[in-house]
From TrEMBL:
NCBIfam families per the UniProt record, alphabetical: maleylpyruvate isomerase family mycothiol-dependent enzyme
GO molecular function: isomerase activity
Name assigned to this protein: Maleylpyruvate isomerase family mycothiol-dependent enzyme
Domain MDMPI C-terminal span(s) in chain numbering: 186-267
Chain ranges of the Mycothiol-dependent maleylpyruvate isomerase metal-binding domain: 16-160
Keywords annotated in UniProt: Isomerase
InterPro entries attached to this UniProt entry: Maleyloyr_isom, MDMPI_C-term_domain, MDMPI_metal-binding
Listed Pfam families: MDMPI_C, MDMPI_N
Superkingdom in the source lineage: Bacteria
C-alpha cells in the first residue's frame, strides 16, 4: 500500500505551508527577539531559522558562506551538542550566517524557500522515488522530505516556545510530521527506556494530536492495534509534552503534573524520562 504521507503532490504543499508558518512567527520580531535563546543547546531564534535556511540551501546544492574574518572562528566539532556529521554541517551553516541581522536572514529565507518550492514543483516521480542520503540513512527523496517537514515542524514549535506564543500543533501538516516522529518511539522505549521483553506499553495522548499508541515488546518493540492482555503500563500525557520529550526539548520532571502513569510506575517513569531520540 502506498504511504499517503509520502504523496508527491501533498507533501511539498505541506512543506510549503510549514515554511510559511516559520516565516509568520518571525516576520515582526525585533533584533533582541531574534537573539532569544531556544530550548536547543546554543541556539537562538536566529540560529533555528538559519539552520532551516542552511539545510534548504544545501539541498539546492549550495555551500555555506565563507567565514566572516571580523568574527572569531568557531571549531564547531568541539561544541558539546555536536555529535555527528549532520550536526557539524548544521552548525557550520548557523555559525556562518550568525553575523547577519534578523531582517537580512529573513530575506535569505524567502529567497531560498522560493527556489526550493520551484525545485520541488519541477520534480518528477522518478526523482521523488530515487534513493538519497538523509539524516536517517539512505531513503527515497520523498521520505527525506517527510523528515524535512518533521524537522521544520519541530523548529516551528521551538520558535513558538522561545517567543512565548502558541501555535496549532495539529492539522494535516502536524499529522504528517508526527508520523515521522512516531517511527522512532518503539526503538527508544527499549534502547533508552529499558522496557523488558513482554512489556505492553500504552501512551494515551491528549491535545492537538490525541490518540492511543500501543507498543508490544516481543524481541523488538512494535506498534500493535491492541493487546491480548492488560497493558503493563499506561502513560497519559498531552501530545505537546510527548513531542517535546521525544525531541529532547524538555524533561519529564518538568511536566510530572501533566503525566499520569497507571500500572508499572517504575517502568513508566523510566520511559518518560528517557524518551529523547531526535537528532
Amino acid at each position: 500500500m502506498t504511504d499517503p504521507t509520502l504523496d508527491r503532490t501533498e507533501l511539498p504543499t505541506r512543506l510549503s505551508e510549514q515554511w510559511d508558518a516559520i516565516a509568520a512567527l518571525v516576520v515582526d520580531i525585533d533584533e533582541n527577539q531574534w537573539r532569544a535563546p531556544t530550548s536547543l543547546p546554543g541556539w537562538s531564534v536566529f540560529d533555528v531559522v538559519a539552520h532551516v535556511v542552511g539545510t534548504e540551501a544545501w539541498l539546492l546544492g549550495e555551500r555555506p558562506p565563507a567565514h566572516d574574518p571580523t568574527t572569531p572562528k568557531t571549531d564547531v566539532r568541539t561544541l558539546p551538542h555536536v555529535r555527528n556529521e549532520t550536526a557539524v554541517l548544521n552548525e557550520i551553516w548557523v555559525d556562518r550566517l550568525r553575523p547577519l541581522s534578523g531582517a537580512r536572514l529573513l530575506e535569505m529565507f524567502h529567497d531560498v524557500i522560493g527556489r526550493r518550492r520551484k525545485a520541488l514543483a519541477a520534480m518528477g516521480d522518478d526523482e521523488w522515488q530515487a534513493q538519497t542520503q538523509s539524516p536517517i540513512g539512505q531513503v527515497s527523496y520523498g521520505r527525506f522530505m517527510r523528515v524535512r517537514l518533521f524537522d521544520c515542524w519541530m523548529h516551528e514549535l521551538d520558535l513558538a516556545d522561545a517567543l512565548g506564543v502558541r501555535v496549532d500543533e495539529g492539522g494535516r501538516r502536524g499529522e504528517i510530521a508526527f508520523t515521522e516522529f512516531l517511527g522512532g518511539v518503539p526503538r527508544v522505549v527499549v534502547k533508552k527506556g529499558g522496557a523488558p521483553d513482554g512489556s505492553r506499553i500504552t501512551f494515551t495522548l491528549t491535545g492537538s494530536l490525541a490518540r492511543s499508541l500501543h507498543i508490544q515488546v516481543a524481541g523488538r518493540a512494535n506498534y500493535v492495534d491492541a493487546f491480548d492482555e492488560p497493558a503493563t503500563v499506561e502513560i497519559r500525557l498531552p501530545s505537546e509534552v510527548f513531542v517535546r520529550l521525544g525531541g529532547g526539548r524538555s524533561t519529564a520532571d518538568e511536566h510530572l503534573d501533566a503525566i499520569t502513569i497507571t500500572g508499572d510506575q517504575e517502568l513508566g517513569l523510566r520511559l518518560v524520562r528517557n524518551l529523547a531520540f531526535t537528532i
